[in-house]
Amino acid sequence: MSHHPAIRTEGLSPTYTGEREVEALKDVTIDFDRNRLTAIIGPSGCGKSTLLKSLNRLHEIQSNVEIEGEVYVGDEPLYSTDRPLPEIRKHIGYVPQKPTPLPLSVYENVAYGPKIHGDHTDEELDAIVENCLRKVNLWEEVEDRLDASGAQLSMGQIQRLCLARALAVDPDVLLCDEVTSALDPVSAETVEETLASLKEEYTIVMVTHSMEQAKRLADEVVFLYLGELVEANDTRSFFEDPSDERTREFVSGHDTVEFDAGERRRDEAEPTTSDD
Predict the structure, then answer these.
(1) Beta-sheet pairing, 228-234 with 173-177
(2) Residue 171 and residue 92 in contact, taking contact as beta carbons nearer than 8 Å
(3) 266 contacts 44 by C-beta, under 8 angstroms
(4) Strand, helix or coil at 255?
(5) Which residues of 171-193 are buried (b: 16+ CB within 10 A; e: fewer)?
(6) Which of 138, 215, 228, 270 has the most CB atoms at less than 10 Å from its CB?
(7) Is-contact 29 229, C-beta < 8 A?
(8) What does R_g of the chain's alpha carbons equal in angstroms?
């Protein structure tokens, strides 16, 4: 997709081991464009969240995952490196599906990462917190209650707080896993507007179950099916002139019974710890 991607995979093949071995992704090679928003779509269980988590080694929380292939951030490998994992993840922010604030104040939620990764003065921390809250369109809503618990905010505000927290360590790439699925329509629209503005400064990779959301937000779309990369294209071409028959069927909603049956067979084999 891009000749100078912010992040790319080469032959990525995560496998869940255990009673039944499941290859979650099959030799996936893909570029994610710099300062673009790429949406990853596909049926449930197709490997979307596995791909996303592989991009910052978040899946290593589980002990039953083996990885073949490589991920590169710029020219730096993510797996064949001696760099500490926290240092790697500093460059690749992650926002989960369920908005979950740290059990801290609004201020400390955003300041938490910078405090860990750097030596900042109080004035510098104040500037980072305000800047990140402004980036996610939350500052004016919380500037008079920065000492209040982050958990006291509304669900939509908490999700934007989680975005601000991810941005506070100045990442190159922002990974978003179904970040509007738990929100009401108004809050979801606000988060979408925030993501649209953030892609001017960050490379965003987003998993979504909503093709309409992908059409609204994405510059590029990646379609996974049963762990395989079927198609990756710019959004207009992807939806209006897909190159693969499976993409055409999925986009048009045809043969959903066949897709669902295939996913059920795969879901039965996939470990419950994989949250695709």
Answers:
(1) unpaired
(2) yes
(3) no
(4) coil
(5) bebbbbbbbbebbeeebbebbbe
(6) 138
(7) yes
(8) 19
Cβ density class 234-268: b for 16+ within 10 Å, e for less: ebeebbeebeeebbebbbeeeeeeebeebbeebbe
Residue 257 has pLDDT above 80, yes or no: no
User: What DSSP element (H or E) covers 177?
Assistant: strand 173-177
The predicted model scores a pTM of: 0.86
Which residue is associated with the tokens 């994992």? 85
- Owner of token pair 């055409």: 248
Q: Which amino acid is at 124?
A: E
| Residue 199, amino acid | K
H or E segment to which residue 76 belongs: strand 76-77
pLDDT at 150 over 70: yes
How much is the pLDDT for 65?
A: 83
Are 51 and 12 a contacting pair, CB within 8 Å? yes
* SS3 (DSSP) at 75: coil
Contact 205, 35 (CB under 8 A): no
